[in-house]
Design goal:
Length: 265
């Protein structure tokens, strides 16, 4: 059930250059949230920005008996995120969620890849935790983290502490292999016969991952970002072209943000 609430901030900390993690005391209905779902946020009593901003649910750390905490990992890019970074514990946010259609979590016997580009890692940490809870053998989950530079590589320690192997690639070579995240992914696919690739990141990366998956006959789910206005399937602001049966488009906010990569044009 999507609920609008005013919630208290319990933490708001930098984790890398330009990236922060915020923790909020939310209602128990978030216990049924799935990885890939998101919330939309505004600052209470602030006229600007007018539109709520969408952010993926990054983690659900355990809270008190009658509350649940949710975490959001965010990159400071513009007006809203610059205001968010200044918020301190005890301040309040107006949030609406959980929204959208998330990743499918199954117990795969074959290897699974998780591919993240920069801030696209945000929902994939929640996904990794749910795969572990579902009983997936962590030795069979390989995580590929990519970014322009070393400070864009986030959450490597969280994936490692879950028991997953992590491969890092940066465009400038300041962390891990020099190059695009798709390069180590392609090499790994040849030796490991995976059955699923989960991905989130910039559109060109998702297009490349989708094409690699399709060429090897591997299922692939991608979480995509678009600009959003209502966030509730009402305004068409987030429509993307699709090639499945139907109207030729879908709403990212209502039908996504996670899609089977084959459906997206
Ligand atoms: C489903 C979904 C989940 C998201 N999850 C996260 C998350 O977990 N962490 C995170 O940091 N961000 C996430 N985003 C992006 C986030 O919503 C934007 O960064 C935020 O709205 C920027 O607000 P702002 O006012 O700070 O910047 P603005 O001033 O609105 O924008 C600054 C710049 O960023 C660009 N921009 C804004 N929104 C987007 C977008 N959705 N896609 C591409 N470019 C954009 C603008 O065109 C502009 O150039 C998500 C977006 C969607 C649709
Ligand atoms: S943002 Fe309005 S329909 Fe998706």
């Amino acid at each position: 059930m999507i609920t609008q609430q005013t919630v208290e901030i319990t933490r708001n900390e930098p984790i890398s250059d330009g990236y922060h993690r915020i923790r909020l005391n939310c209602g128990m209905h978030y216990a049924s949230a799935t990885p890939g779902q998101f919330v939309t946020i505004r600052l209470p009593d602030q006229a600007e920005p007018l539109l709520r901003r969408p952010f993926s649910i990054h983690r659900l750390p355990s809270g008190d008996a009658d509350t649940l905490q949710i975490e959001i990992l965010y990159r400071v890019v513009g007006g809203f995120t610059r205001q968010l970074v200044r918020q301190v514990p005890g301040n309040e946010l107006d949030i609406l969620g959980p929204i959208g259609h998330g990743f499918s979590v199954r117990l795969y016997e074959h290897p699974v890849a998780i591919a993240a580009g920069g801030i696209g890692v945000a929902p994939l940490v929640f996904l990794a935790e749910r795969l572990k809870q579902a009983g997936m053998d962590m030795n069979r989950v390989m995580v590929f983290l990519g970014g322009r530079t070393g400070t864009d590589i986030l959450c490597e320690g969280i994936f490692s502490s879950l028991g997953m192997q992590v491969s890092v690639a940066t465009e400038d070579g300041t962390a891990g292999e020099k190059g695009l995240v798709t390069e180590p992914l392609q090499k790994w696919i040849k030796d490991n016969n995976p059955k699923m690739i989960y991905a989130c990141g910039p559109h060109p990366m998702l297009k490349a991952v989708g094409e690699i998956a399709q060429s090897h006959g591997i299922a692939c789910e991608v979480s995509i970002e678009t600009l959003m206005a209502c966030g509730l399937g009402v305004c068409m602001g987030c429509a993307v072209s699709t090639n499945d049966a139907g109207e030729g488009y879908r709403h990212v906010c209502k039908d996504g943000p996670v899609f089977d990569a084959r459906v997206l044009v």
